[in-house]
Amino acid sequence: MPTVLLVRHGRSTANASGVLAGWTPGVALDDRGREQAAALAARVAALPLSAVVSSPLQRCRETVRPLLDVRPEIELHSDERVGECRYGDWAGRKLSELADEPLWRTVQQYPSEAVFPGPDGESLRAMQQRAVAAVREWNARIEREHGADALFVVCSHGDIIKSVVADALGLHLDLFQRIAVDPCSVTAIRYTSARPFLLRLGDTGDLAGLVPKVPGAESGPEDGDAAVGGGAGAP
Length: 235
Hints:
Blueprint: E1 3-8, H1 13-17, H2 31-43, E2 49-54, H3 58-70, E3 75-78, H4 95-98, H5 102-109, H6 124-146, E4 151-156, H7 158-168, E5 186-191, E6 196-203
Parallel strand pairs: 1-4, 2-3, 2-4
Antiparallel strand pairs: 1-5, 5-6
Helix pairs in contact: 2-3, 6-7
Active site: 9, 84
Binding site for substrate: 8-15, 59, 84-87
InterPro entries: His_Pase_superF_clade-1, His_PPase_superfam, Phosphoglycerate_Mutase, Phosphomutase_MSMEG4193_put
């Protein structure tokens, strides 16, 4: 099965000011975020990417733009299901203020029970369900269109990526706050018929090891089998 590279958007103006952006319009990358987005394009330069799927929010579209500018052959898709959690009445507020809300402890300790207030608020469970469904559906589509060794990017948001990782690892959603992904980091998951493999988590370094191996270049376990003993890693 293909490998999905879950890219968190670069640092945004909301990140820098400690604001929970949610779906607030007009939240762009700051200067540091634009530097991170430019560096991302270089970091994935060696990877044979088949497609980019992006959250429709501005900070994600700005993150993938440098990559698409140098790789115009890569097809871009937009999918609201990998858009940010809908934080409802919490959106646009300072995190330091939200930490005093009674719901904050639920979000931290029992996120599976958290439902954000207001008519536009959603639960973290619903957020995870839509995000996981989107990633798995895109994974199947990319395999049909580009083959089992394809690589593709999904540019999304911190809580979205953490929830997808938790699902891949078989973790209860209440444990997803133990996962951290920095701005413009890359988390790589390869889904197989047996199990998902978490290949990178919040990686901000070199990604050359994700280049697909040449078929028949070496013997090893069947696809979907874990490498007993840990394996040899990238050549």
